[in-house]
Design brief:
This protein is of the alpha/beta class and about 200 residues long. The chain has two domains: about 80 residues, no CATH class; about 120 residues, no CATH class. About 25% of the residues are buried. This is DUF1707 domain-containing protein.
């Protein structure tokens, strides 16, 4: 088997990352433990893997092993940050609720002293791939209800004596709305989850 890279006339293809090289190296180590290659072959192939710059250069050292030699991960670009000023929603000691069919802006700022907040996006009209929600909460609580395929990153939400709970995936998904939820809650709690149905009613 030749371990030479592609000829100079061939398109180089996609550049690979350090993580791709490590995955290829791990496959070689696994092949060694399974008895598919010898130690000498492992060393020879590892030299090619760690010198590779393009996915096509991983084909020769992995071509006779199980799996796709070109199965390298190309990370998707992160969702873009919405532009423009936020729409501000405020409440003092009362309640604030958005539910049903409503048009969701790209950015929301929610300010509450001691009141309760419910943001239900399940039936809302969402035209943006990314929606940002900034919370400024005192002692009140907030509940964020997301559609089934939506994701939410709550790492930027800081809690003093309250709590932050998210029951939805944090990693963006292609074609699904991604929510960035950040800000601060002093003594209140923030819960991010899907809706559930009980006795014919949604909660």
């Amino acid at each position: 088997m030749s371990l030479q890279p592609s000829s100079p006339g061939e398109p180089p293809g996609i550049r690979i990352s350090d993580a791709d090289r490590e995955r290829a190296a791990q496959r070689l180590h696994t092949a060694l433990t399974e008895g598919r290659i010898t130690v000498a072959e492992l060393e020879e192939r590892l030299a090619v893997v760690y010198a590779a710059r393009y996915g096509s250069e991983l084909v020769p050292p992995l071509a006779d092993l199980p799996g796709d030699p070109l199965d390298v991960t190309v990370p998707a670009p992160p969702p873009s940050t919405p532009a423009g000023p936020p729409v501000v929603l405020r409440t003092g000691m009362g309640s604030l609720r958005r539910s049903g069919s409503w048009q969701v802006p790209a950015r929301l700022r929610v300010q509450s002293g001691m009141g309760s907040v419910v943001l239900d996006f399940c039936e809302a009209e969402i035209r943006h791939p990314v929606v940002e929600i900034e919370f400024e909460l005192g002692a009140g609580s907030a509940r964020v209800l997301l559609p089934d395929n939506a994701t939410a990153d709550v790492d930027g939400l800081v809690s003093g004596m309250g709590s932050v709970k998210s029951k939805v995936p944090a990693t963006p998904r292609p074609g699904a709305t991604h929510f960035r939820i950040y800000g601060r809650t002093t003594m209140g709690s923030v819960t991010v989850r899907r809706r559930y149905r009980l006795a014919g009613h949604w909660f």
